[in-house]
């Protein structure tokens, strides 16, 4: 058994996040940032993963699958796992009702089935949050795991349902659901770290990669059977200088004894 597990995960939003999450369907420049991810970023990441012989998990909206079938086919034929990330990349909390969220999840499942020939087992919420209906919908569609929440740092755990957060009474955690959470962190996501923001300016990028390395090293030293999930987006991580920094991060982590790079689905099966 490995001492530490690393899941490299890629949210392949294409242009869906610009259209459905950020309301930028009329901005050719922002759409072109998504197109950069499809045409340039994704192939660079695939090449890098191939060089390191690593199997990764790609969360792909149905919108990306239907808009850019060849690009997503390349991910699948390269041997990576493809899991659910909504059809439209709509933030779950913004659906007007349960039926429209249900329809979007169903359409996303169908898009993945038509590409891979099998049903997705895992879900990652667009925007990393749930509506009040998301968890019961995941159970109803027989998903096995989710990777959007942050209740632990390095260990999978069951998501709870029926929790309550009333304004005038204590918080209730609720009961364990059938869905295993393989937790993410905003601290290990390239989008908040690097996506251009006019107010903030540029991040110290090597410092962010150093932070990701220190997080892995802390886990390796202190946590039994820890699972380290790193999230990236082809339109962010696919830039030349970042691909190089990612290359060295992978190389450094891979030098540690008994480290396994694997898919989130494989991790969830061991829970
Ligand atoms: Zn996304």
Automatic annotation (TrEMBL):
GO terms for biological process: carbohydrate metabolic process. It comes from the Archaea. GO terms for molecular function: hydrolase activity, acting on carbon-nitrogen (but not peptide) bonds. Gene3D superfamilies: Glycoside hydrolase/deacetylase (3.20.20.370). Pfam families: Polysacc_deac_1. Residues 16-271 form the NodB homology domain. InterPro entries: Glyco_hydro/deAcase_b/a-brl, NODB_dom, PgdA-like. This is Polysaccharide deacetylase.
């Amino acid at each position: 058994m490995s001492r530490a597990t690393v899941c490299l995960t890629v949210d392949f939003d294409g242009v869906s996040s610009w259209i459905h999450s950020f309301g930028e369907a009329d901005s050719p420049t922002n759409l072109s940032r998504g197109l950069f991810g499809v045409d340039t970023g994704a192939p660079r990441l695939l090449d890098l993963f191939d060089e390191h012989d690593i199997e990764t998990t790609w969360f792909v909206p149905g919108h990306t699958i239907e808009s850019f079938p060849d690009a997503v086919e390349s991910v699948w034929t390269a041997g990576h796992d493809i899991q659910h990330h909504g059809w439209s990349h709509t933030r779950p909390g913004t659906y007007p009702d349960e039926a429209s969220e249900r329809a979007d999840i169903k359409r996303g499942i169908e898009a993945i089935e038509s590409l891979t020939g099998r049903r997705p087992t895992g879900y990652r919420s667009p925007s990393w949050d749930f509506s009040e209906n998301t968890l019961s919908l995941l159970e109803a569609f027989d998903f096995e795991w989710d990777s959007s929440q942050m209740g632990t740092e390095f260990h999978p755990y069951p998501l709870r349902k029926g929790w309550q957060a009333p304004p005038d009474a204590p918080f209730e955690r609720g009961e364990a659901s059938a869905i295993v959470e393989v937790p993410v962190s905003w601290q290990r996501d390239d989008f908040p770290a690097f996506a251009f923001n006019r107010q903030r300016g540029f991040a110290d990028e090597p410092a962010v990669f150093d932070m990701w390395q220190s997080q892995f090293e802390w886990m390796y030293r202190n946590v039994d059977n820890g699972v380290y999930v790193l999230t990236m987006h082809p339109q962010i991580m696919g830039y030349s200088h970042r691909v190089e920094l990612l290359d060295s991060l992978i190389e450094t982590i891979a030098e540690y004894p008994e480290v396994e790079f694997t898919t989130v689905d494989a991790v969830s099966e061991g829970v």
